[in-house]
Amino acid sequence: MKQAVRAFKGKSLAYCLGLNFFSSVRITKEEIELITSVKCAQPHEHLGMHPHRKGKKNCLIVRAYLDDAQSCHLVDVVNDSKLYELKRLTKDGLFEGVIEDRNEVFHYLLRIERFNGEICQFSDPYSFLPTLSDDDVYLFSEGSDHFVHHKMGSQLRNIDGVKGVSFVIWAPNAERVSVVGDFNHWDGRYHAMRSLGASGIWELFIPGLESGVKYKYEISTRQGSLLLKTDPYGTCFEAPPNNASIIRNVDDYQWNDDEWILNRAQTDWKDQPISIYEMHPGSWKSVVEDASCPLSYRELAHALVDYLTDMYYTHVEFMPLSEHPFDGSWGYQVTGYFAPTYRFGTPEDFMFLVDTLHQNGIGVIMDWVPAHFPTDSFALAKFDDTALYEHSDPRQGFHQDWGTLIFNYGRNEVRGFLIASALAWCERYHIDGLRVDAVASMLYLDYSRKDGEWVPNQYGGRENLQAIDFLRQTNDVVHKYYPGTLMIAEESTSFPGVTKPTSEGGLGFDLKWNMGWMNDTLEYFKKDPIHRKYDHHQLSFGMLYQYSENFTQVFSHDEVVHGKLSMLLKMPGEPISNKAHQLRLLYGLMWIWPGKKTLFMGCDFGQSAEWNYNKSLDWHLLEYPEHKGIQMVVRDLNKLYQEIPSLALGDTKPDGFEWINCTDAENSILTFLRKGSVPTEDVAAVGNMTPVLREGFRVGLPHAGYWKEILNTDAKKYGGLGFGNNGVVESEAIEWDGRPFSIVVQMPPQSMSVFRFQG
Question: Which of 376, 380, 487, 622 is the most exposed, fewest CB within 10 Å of its CB?
């Protein structure tokens, strides 16, 4: 209230209170009906303290609407012995009192006696001015307040010594909005919010509320509907089916990752090894005592550090941890764009997980889903009974494939909401990168639609120009505020310039999933080796576009579900040992091939079963040599990737790759070079895609001297047959494959051998 009193100085009371004139009469029956029926968009005009005229005398009038008060008095804060009685006007708790000996608004408290005899005293929510300024409202409407999440939603505040929570929500079609929760028995009559006019924003400061309180918004719409909605900007949520938002301060965690954040900002990740472990936290590992209970954020912290460090991964990528109601969506149908899911702990627990990973040199990437959102009635869908966040036209606003709604990227407030979400994960949770899901569905208006089922853009084309602008802006803003943060696109088409800077007309992503390479390579490896020679081009074709974007090679969760079989069982033939030979070969090809690496959990030890989001990985398989061998190959490949500069420096630069021979279809052999800045960084890869042992096979090379076999996927320690080249091979001055020197090697069946030049 001191805030309100100070604001009056230099301004008329009518201006500060939103009134055009002094009240000349006490409350009318119509006003009572307006308040108690909860149809009032400006409750502050009727409730709280107001200037009043009684006859020819100026005085004050105070009204309060209280749910459980038997009696009510007003207390002068300066002179707490001074009490003014407010009389009950209605059975449901509307009180009014006239203060005849005062004519200037002052700081007061309400003292009530409850029906159970309890006496309590508190600040009046309707004695406070709006918590948003005119500039705040303008920037929100413009979509240009990048950190609007610090103002919208529920915010713990201290206003002139009064602690409480400010609530701000956007609902332009609402007739009335109320904050409801346990504190008012979920009754929308008692904490109606104030409309901030044409902006569509509603706000209210409620003194006395603290962290941990559950709440929702009750929205009465112009169509006559009464909706109960969770907070779009909520930072914490109750478990389904109630899904209430929970007030929580997420800004007090004491981080210990300053060194990591500083180094991240100074790193050019294009030239660095990036090996990403994609995972679903709910099905990674169970607690020892209960196989149905996944590890918490804090339990994951230590377990993940141990595993990822041992396996030489540089990053972990979490499938969406934003709050979502349905486990079976894997997190991709988000209802809480600013909240880590409750399933594994509190927001602070998630911070601890990220912090611990950073302190151990591991980056954290999270899946982010701005492409669509679910139709759940408690969340964003038809938020104020209109298509607010989505399009009203189902040809633009409904995603047929997933039964979800599509964001209206052309609406400033929606664009600002999503950009703030991206920034919040970087700011609050120190996330090092966002893998943006389903980018292709955002780029094309006709995505997965037939003729007549989509609306062309203003130029008659199929590109979603508004979504493209949104993606560019998001990438630029994230990079501006958080340098070194990776923006990764899951984009499955040939849309040009996905990883080109926006200044050059691109979308501005750092990396793109290489879906083309993944599909071609898997199709090749699924074939019986006897037939592979007819499709040899599937292995080499990817190099035609490898450097058109900054790629990460990927085998993701999508490839090991829905009847697609696990990575191991995709391999043809029997027994399992034979499949393991081929999977080790495949991983050898993937890691030595240019591009960053992304591999889904379980694939790195040859999980046999398809991934099940309800079940822990089959870690017991590591007791078997075939599975342990696959894991050891991935481990050693990651280690080589970090140790040999040419393998990372050439990920995005075409001069770092050179074919030795990509046309030997008859033998199904693929050979290529990864070139470094000096000859001793050069690496030659020799892949034999058949079960035939190739003796005395000659490979052309650029340098005379010794070439060390630094990895052989057929080594016995990996579960292979043990064929190989005894560690080192010396090149001869025999021209081969168009090169002045060559080596003669033994090529184990279904294997990848990697040689490094020694000089």
Answer: 622
What is the distance between the alpha carbons of residues 219 and 126, in angstroms, rounded to a whole number? 19
How many Å apart are CA 72 and CA 110, to the nearest integer?
Answer: 7
pLDDT at residue 3 is higher than 70: no
Active site residue 437: yes
Number of Cβ within 10 Å of residue 29's Cβ equals 8
Direct distance between the N- and C-terminal alpha carbons of the chain, in angstroms, rounded to an integer = 80
753 in helix, strand or coil?
A: strand
Question: How would DSSP label each residue in 86-145?
Answer: EEE-STT-EEEEEETT--S---EEEEEEETTS-EEEE--GGGS--SS-HHHHHHHHHT--
Catalytic choice (413, 437, 559, 714): 437
3-state secondary structure 67-83: CCEEEEEEEECCCCCCE
CA angle, residues 357, 360, 363, in degrees to nearest 5: 50
Residue 24 has pLDDT above 50, yes or no: no
- Per annotation, catalytic residue among 490, 604, 626, 682: 490
Active-site residue, 203 included: no
Cα radius of gyration (the chain): 32
Domains and CATH numbers, the chain: 2-127 (2.60.40.10), 134-246 (2.60.40.10), 654-757 (2.60.40.1180)
**Residue pLDDT, tens place only, 452-466:** 999 999 999 999 999
Asked whether the predicted pLDDT for residue 10 surpasses 70, the reply is: no
**pLDDT tens, residue by residue, 400-437:** 999 999 999 999 999 999 999 999 999 999 999 999 99
pLDDT recorded at residue 7: 35
DSSP H/E element including 376: none
User: What's residue 570's pLDDT?
Assistant: 98
In the predicted model, is pLDDT for residue 21 greater than 60?
no
Other Cβ atoms less than 10 A from the Cβ of 198: the count is: 9
